[in-house]
Design brief:
12 strands; binds guanosine-5'-diphosphate; Ubiquitin-like (UB roll); single chain
């Protein structure tokens, strides 16, 4: 799963990236589209600590979420060049977007728009994303309208696609995002390849001044369950501290949890992900999986061979195992189950796939 970090120039996109990764990408360097900042961020999970204690493996591997910084998408908003196709394609390829909105003051790095107005900035970002989707759909709809009467093997499918795209087109022309257009499973599959930008779930990051930490600062126009406020510059410095020293700092600053961890948890939630675990002698590992996925999907996530040769899954939930204290006790209480390929995985399941290839 991959999220694109985007925002207007000088809103702190690079600094948010640094806060996420503890990396030191130079905020002043121009990043070319072919040299994108890409980060793999661990998903914190207290159950992994228990499992590591319990199984004593050589290695513990966290689930991970990827973030890619996509600069230059909205330079035109502040008088620069319009978005290049490469940058847009990178965002299309992602599963969700993180929109950075400027709410900090910095005399040595003034807001190119003069004043801070995160709600205005979000509106401009969304308008631009909508325009990019509109351009693709208009082109495709015009093509299909011309060709739809030709009796080709794809004619039936094209009719379904055209009908869906026409609904999307009408919605965009009304200023509605594609996220809010109802699509059937078939339509959704047919349109997936276009990578529409306004269909992606998104998170709003309000990049605030250090002095505003802890304040009630998120404007009411932003959806509270998909918005975070933090000071990216401070958080990027916190990321560099030794974890042992960090907690005291955080307390003094009134910060409950690192922005990185908050953002990863929110990413998990908006992408509708759960975690399952695997273990063997050498490794305990957490994996991200879409909610509603089956044991077979879990097997596929680990290795395609496991899915191909799937026989059964042995499953115990980490919470049960922790309460029961041992495998033996978990078995006695019926908490270790044998499941088939269609079993719907629950968050926290420890899964052992039996397979044969
Ligand atoms: N005071 C303050 N300055 C920041 C913050 N975040 C970014 N900056 C500064 O704002 C400028 C633009 O940040 P940058 O991350 O390069 O923005 P980008 O153009 O969106 O990638 C830089 O000079 C940063 O040091 C912040 O939270 N507080
Ligand atoms: Mg930048």
């Amino acid at each position: 799963m991959k999220l694109a970090i985007i925002g207007l120039p000088q809103s702190g996109v690079t600094t948010v990236f640094n806060a996420l990764t503890g990396r030191h990408a130079d905020p002043h360097a121009y990043t070319k589209p072919d040299e994108l900042n890409l980060a793999v961020v661990k998903v914190p999970d207290p159950r992994l600590d228990f499992l590591s204690e319990h199984y004593q493996p050589d290695k513990v591997v966290h689930a991970a979420i990827e973030y890619v910084e996509v600069p230059g998408l909205f330079a035109a908003t502040t008088g620069g060049a319009s978005a290049d196709a490469g940058a847009t394609a990178t965002v299309r390829d992602c599963d969700a977007t993180v929109k950075v909105l400027r709410a900090f003051h910095a005399p040595d790095a003034p807001n190119p728009r003069g004043d801070n107005d995160p709600v205005r900035d979000l509106r401009d970002i969304d308008d631009e994303l909508l325009t990019l989707d509109l351009a693709i759909i208009e082109k495709r709809v015009n093509r299909l309208r011309k060709d739809i009467h030709k009796p080709t093997p794809e004619q039936e499918q094209n009719k379904v696609e055209l009908a869906a795209l026409e609904r999307c087109l009408a919605a965009l022309e009304e200023g509605q995002e594609l996220r809010d257009v109802h699509l059937s499973d078939r339509e959704e599959k047919l349109l997936r390849g276009y990578g529409f930008l306004t269909i992606q779930p998104c998170i709003h990051v309000l990049n605030i001044d250090e002095s505003d930490i802890g304040g009630d600062i998120v404007p009411p126009d932003l959806p509270a369950d998909r918005s975070l406020a933090f000071c990216a510059e401070l958080e990027s410095e916190l990321g560099e501290l030794d974890p042992d020293d960090r907690d005291e700092f955080l307390q003094d600053l009134g910060i409950d949890e690192l922005a990185r961890d908050r953002l990863v948890r929110m990413s998990y939630r908006i992408l509708d992900l759960i975690t399952f675990f695997t273990h063997n002698k050498s490794e305990v590992r957490a994996w991200a999986l879409e909610k509603g996925a089956t044991a077979l999907d879990a097997a596929e996530t680990i290795h395609s061979d496991m899915a191909r040769g799937f026989i059964r899954a042995e499953v115990v939930n980490a919470d049960d195992l922790q309460q029961d204290g041992s495998e033996r006790e978990a078995r006695a209480r019926g908490h270790i189950k044998t499941e088939g390929r269609d079993y719907v995985v629950r968050d926290g399941d420890i899964i052992t796939i039996r397979f044969n290839v």
